[in-house]
Automatic annotation (TrEMBL):
It comes from Sulfidibacter corallicola. Pathway: Purine metabolism; IMP biosynthesis via de novo pathway; 5-amino-1-(5-phospho-D-ribosyl)imidazole from N(2)-formyl-N(1)-(5-phospho-D-ribosyl)glycinamide: step 2/2. Residues 58-162 form the PurM-like N-terminal domain. The gene is purM. This is Phosphoribosylformylglycinamidine cyclo-ligase. One of its GO terms (cellular component) is cytosol.
Length: 343
């Protein structure tokens, strides 16, 4: 059969149809009671009645996974970046106290490979099911000549809800409150451009080599799934045990914590309060990364920082230890200028 002119130009509608058929079961597996539409509709429909809330506020965010995708391309492993994308978006709205409702994705590539798209969406579905949110829709764009062969980009869009009285943020932060750090599962989705330069260009390591000082292969360490903190923290949000949170993404400690600080208070961080994981120690030492830059580029083993009243700290840390979050007493809120002090 003669190919269509569109296929000659590099776009295959048949490939899109095959991809949709492959991802349909993954998307359907995330359906919740609120979803009122099926895959293939022009727009996703969601029931937004919240009778249990006095003043429901929608919280939204959009993000990607950055150059972590380069590792996925080289390793030809695509399911973990889908999970990373969803979990990153969940954590971004979680810091304001929101529970996730629905997620939408955008996947763009030069030449559509239905099996790769299916792997990416399968990963998204895993993360969505774990946190009880629905994939409500998405977009696949085949853009010949725009992306290199075998490459794609992916972005995620999330909407959650929180009762206005339970919104978290800088207005609830007070001098004397405590900081609790929760362990990351690796680089999460930030710092990959520098990490790749150190690991591959400067150290000459390959994907199947071990990361020095660890028993983990380079590909496994770099493709580790970005952790979602929602399930561990949701019970504590319901009873107001947390006053503010910072998701430690691009900008590390130094740029993210100030986003939840009043102008007259600082976050005083004890960098010796926990053991920095070997992956980060290797990157800092072998890459010659100065301390200030390390805590601005990488999460340094801490993916989420909580601000809590001192009276809540001990019990909250015990509960989070039980939940496998490896919490640490990271520091204090002190008088200052809305900055982070590393000590």
């Amino acid at each position: 059969m003669k190919p269509s002119r569109y296929e000659e130009a590099g776009v295959s509608i048949d490939a899109q149809d095959r991809a949709i058929a492959q991802i349909k079961s993954h998307v359907n597996s995330t359906q919740t009671d609120r979803v009122l539409s099926d895959i293939g509709s022009f727009g996703g429909l969601l029931d937004i009645r919240f009778p249990e809330m006095q003043y429901p506020v929608l919280v939204s965010s959009a993000d990607g996974v950055g150059t972590k995708l380069k590792i996925a391309f080289d390793a030809d492993r695509h399911d973990t970046v889908g999970q990373c994308l969803v979990n990153h978006c969940i954590d971004d709205i979680l810091v304001q106290g929101a529970r996730p409702l629905f997620f939408m994705d955008y996947v763009a590539t030069g030449k559509l490979r239905p099996d790769v798209v299916a792997d990416v969406v399968a990963g998204m579905a895993v993360a969505c099911r774990e946190s009880g949110l629905a994939i409500l829709g998405g977009e696949m764009a085949e853009m010949p000549g725009f992306y290199n062969a075998g490459e794609y980009d992916v972005a995620g869009f999330i909407v959650g809800v929180v009762d206005k009285a339970k919104l978290l943020g800088a207005d609830r932060v007070r001098k004397g409150q405590k900081l609790i750090g929760l362990a990351s599962t690796g680089l999460h989705t930030n710092g990959y451009s520098l990490a790749r330069k150190i690991i591959f260009e400067e150290c000459g390591l390959k994907l199947d080599d071990l990361v020095p000082g660890t028993e983990a292969r380079v590909d496994d360490a770099l493709l580790a799934v970005h952790r979602s903190y929602f399930k561990a923290l949701e019970p504590h949000l319901e009873v107001d045990r947390i006053q503010a949170m910072a998701h430690i993404t691009g900008g590390g400690f130094l740029d993210n914590l100030p986003r939840v600080l009043p102008a007259d208070l600082d976050a005083s961080i004890d960098t010796g309060a926990y053991e920095v994981p070997p992956l980060f120690r290797f990157l800092v030492e072998r890459g010659g990364v100065e301390r200030e830059e390390a805590y601005r580029v990488f999460n340094m083993g801490i993916g989420m920082i909580l601000v809590v009243d001192e009276a809540q700290q001990e019990a909250l840390m015990a509960d989070l230890e039980q939940a496998g979050m490896a919490p640490c007493a990271l520091g204090d809120i002190v008088a200052g200028e809305g900055k982070v002090q590393l000590r």
